[in-house]
Hints:
The complex is a heterodimer of chains A (about 550) and B (about 190). In chain A, about 65% of the residues lie in helices and about 0% in strands. By secondary structure, chain A is mostly helical. Helices cover about 75% and strands about 0% of the residues of chain B.
Amino acid sequence: MSVPSPTMTTPDTAGTPRALVDHLHDWVVTVDHKRLGIMYVVTGLVFFVIAGLEAAVMRIQLAWSGLHVVPPETFNRLFTMHGTTMVFLVGIPIVFGFGNYLVPLMIGARDLAFPRLNAFGFWVLVFGGLLLHFSVIGGDGLYGAGSAPAVGWFAYAPLTSKAFTPGNATDYWNLAVFVTGIGTIATAVNLVTTTLIMRGPGMTFGRLPIFVWVMLTVSGMTLMILPPLSAAQIMLVLDRYLGAHYFDTQAGGSAVMWQHFFWFFGHPEVYVLMLPGFGFVSEIIPVFSRKVLFGYPMIVAATVSIGLVGLSTWAHHMFVVGLGGPVTTFFALSTMLIAVPTGMKIFNWLGTMYGGKLIFRTPMLFSCAFLFQFLVAGLTGIMLSVAPFDWQLSDSYFVVAHFHFVLFGGLLFTIFGAVYYWFPKVTGRMLSERLGRWHFWLLVIGFNITFITMHVQGILGMPRRIYTYQPDRGWEIWNFITTLGVPVQAIAVLIFVANVLLSLRRGERAGDDPWDAWTLEWATTSPPPDYNFETIPVTTSRRPLWDLKHPDDPDGPHE
Amino acid sequence: MSAQPAALAQPHDLKGRVGIIALIIAELSLFGVFVVAYLFYIGKSLNGPYPRDVLDLPVVGTICLLSSSISVALGARALRQGHVRRSGAWLFVTVALGAIFLAATANEWYGLIYRHGLTIGTNLFGTTFYPLVGLHATHVAVGLLMLSLCCVFAWTGALRPVHGERVEIVSWYWHFVDGIWVVVFTVVYVIGR
């Protein structure tokens, strides 16, 4: 939040040093989509460090059999907080933060449709994050039982009932996630309205940048999937405090119902997080291949169909519940089906790179690693969609490895690529390429050491969420290698943080368009002025800035 | 849609409508889960009282609520045409009809709790009935709050024809509250009984 930005001070005070309090006050009261976008992403990165440290402690605990680094109850709290934080306070704020910052710039708009609603959404999300972490102090409640929530990030019934989790820890999980959900719904309403209504002249749906298409899709999905989670959480509060029986099997209620409601949110949520990653690489790969994106209509169709099919795959998280043949078959098939549009996109990106003049700057490096790692994630995903295979490996470390390949090897790598790509636009300075390469290679190595080996433990039968294990299982060496990757990744993230802090002060000046890119955000200054564009550029093709730079050879006739 | 198309010359004016539709989609999704839970638990209560023994059709409340959709539409149209006082009168009728609905619901709940001993913890019927009908009643209350503000502003003269679009959006929310009542009514009082 300490991003110095010359254009954000008004001209009459630009020369005088302003008090820190005034500066902070400006950030707190702002309704500007760029500042809120920055705050979203910085908030996400702060929580990323916190949740990463929690993961590191868990890996140290599991490095060898029979260790007692932390008590078992603490271990349960660690994996609960790690998962909840990563999904609701890292993934969502970062992708919606980028959406906040980039969507108006990319479509040629002054701001989002509802700037004050935008600020409300952000601060509500921050409050939810603080509420979740306040549980560490306040979770004891009046009962002295429990601290941070320890029910896992999907909080299955009946573990969440009063009988099994007394105290207030589970309520902190429930209400904190509920509150962040309100903020996310507000932002989704905003992004849908902005994209539908505020597009600049000539910005037809056929010319929208892929990232905008993606944010439109995931915002629409968010409107449909987040309220069911909120509804289920209201039911949980009613169960816990007013004696309702929604998930209370002893009064005829159904614990499986919670699973359905949770995963009706939880699985599409994976696409809400992952599709923006696809959006990032769809913007980055063409620029660093010096070619137009291969198969624009196909990518758009694939994005929207992932959004639609993604709404009907949730119960593949529940194969071991025993859903019965027809239901299991339906969800196995729909899960396999969603691999088709996802696979199509991989070919789109490869087709874009094929025959291109590849420039391996840091954003492109992260995008390439994403292609490989996400392919692995997709393949293990198809393996797990086969119900009998899933019965064998459900709730094992194989599943943990799978979704970390999706969200870490896939999403997080694209997020780092996006940070390196758009940092010059946001701050006016380049991130160091040398530190960026160190960051990239250490992260690739550390990530793969940790998460490739995790597949092996899973196949050898190691269940997820166990506190420790017996020495005779043959898991020790694999767990040890898994833990060895942690310090490598930690160093990589430290280098990234150092890179950001150093480049903010001493980074090379970027200029308006350092990558010679083609979308409208590069048509304005770096950082953009409060009003974004002096005159809103007219869009004439899918690469409006190319048309402005090359009036003799516009893209339009070739589309 | 509008008696004065010129008022919608700027596409940005439409953002309120798109925004409220997006919010309504989210609300439908929220209600959907409570409806699904209600349908799933029909007939699964382990003990009484059962819906067919204690539920009466809320005829008066339903008629009032559904007619209030007409009055709010007339109120919004009157404001667009520049008749502030007439608009305020129609909005007041809407508030009155909505209040009758809420009173009817309160009366129904009073009977259920004190005569029939049905609370949220009695059985699965109580568990699913009160949150579903209560969620709808909460939305009615929120809508009444917004409509009452419009009424007060019309009375004090703060409401002017330029605010037609905003009242229109409030009326869309109110139509949604009415529409969802048709679903709740069908599920709770027709299918569930």
